[in-house]
Each structure stands twice: as C-alpha cells, then as structure tokens.
Amino acid sequence: MFELPELPYAYDALQPVMSDKTLRFHHDKHHAAYVKNVNDMVNASAEASRSLEDIISGAARSGNRKLFNNAAQAWNHAFFWLAMTPNAEKPTTELESAIKGAFGDLNGLKDKFVAEGAAHFGSGWVWLVSDRAGKLEVISTHDADDTLTKEGVTPLTVCDLWEHAYYLDYQNDRKGFLEKWFDALPNWLFAARQYAAARGSGEAWRYPASSAEAARRSA
Ligand code: FE2
Fold it and tell me: Can you give the pTM of this predicted structure?
C-alpha cells in the first residue's frame, strides 16, 4: 500500500495565495483518489513491491496509460506539496547563480515560468528542471506526464496547472494564480537539494516506499 503523504504544513498555511478550501479538496480528494487508484491497480500483483518511480517508468514503457496516469499524478502531487512552503526564502547562492545564468535573474525565471504555464493548453504541470550539467530549463508537461520518463532531467520545482489547483480561488485566471504562486510559495531550499542531486550530489526526492516495497527491501 502506498500512503497518501501528509501535507508538510496546515491547510490554511498557504493563504492567501492558496486557500484552505482549495488545499483540502486538492489533497484530501484529488491526491487521495490518485493514490487509492494506484493501490487498487497494483495490490495483489508483483507491481505492489516496486517503488512508485519504477511503477511509473514501467507503465510508461508498456503503454499502460491508466496506471501511468494515476501513479504519476500520485507522485506529482506529493512533489508539489514539498515544492511549496509558507516560509518563502530566496534561492540559495548556487541555485541563484544558475538562475542568473539561464534567465538573467529571478524575475526572468518568473516571467518564463508564468508564460509557459499560462500558455499551456489544457491540464498539466509547469516545471523548473535541471540537466546533469546543472543547466536550468522551464518546461510544461500534459495531464499526468512528469519528468521521471525524461532521461537526465531532475525537477527542482513545479506548479499544478489543473483547474482544481486554482479554480476555487482564481476562477479561470491561471496567469494570476501563477504570478502569486511564484512570488510567495516556491520552496527554494527543497529546489536547492534537488539541484544538487541533479548534478550527482545527494539523492533526488523519491515517493515514500509502500508497505510492500519496504517489506521487500528489509527481507
Ligand atoms: Fe492537482
């Protein structure tokens, strides 16, 4: 069984950018449903003892879209919660230098991130990613698609572009949501750890092991 990760902050901690009501629905209903669906699909099969990352990669390779969509959405949302913080700080020195190199400054990154997310057609995710050399890029992915299936790409931060992420608070104003989100919520300390991992220092974040995976590892 994969667990639904608890939010690392209170439901009202991201207000006024993200309301208590939005976060409750988003985490307790949407994210919970993806995790439940994955468990329903993999329990009692050999898949159950694999990591969520392996399940996502395997489903992508075999073309099992239903499993891929639910597993990737379970992963993306867990990553999204960690990519936000109520205690916003600026990017750390190393990451700041990389941002300057790629986008001029933090405002340049914001412009690119907001423009990419606002122009993305339909549901999906907008990501700041790094390659193994530390080169940064802003990309968007459709629906449940993530960066796990992209070789050599590590996500540093992400924002959810599905309407359930912002409609209660911003209605159809995705751009307005993204602008406020970028100014207040990115967890740059988390992004910095991911950035170090992208270049081979430390481990990139992984979804918490399921009970079956933990049992297999300790056997
Ligand atoms: Fe979402």
Answer: 0.96
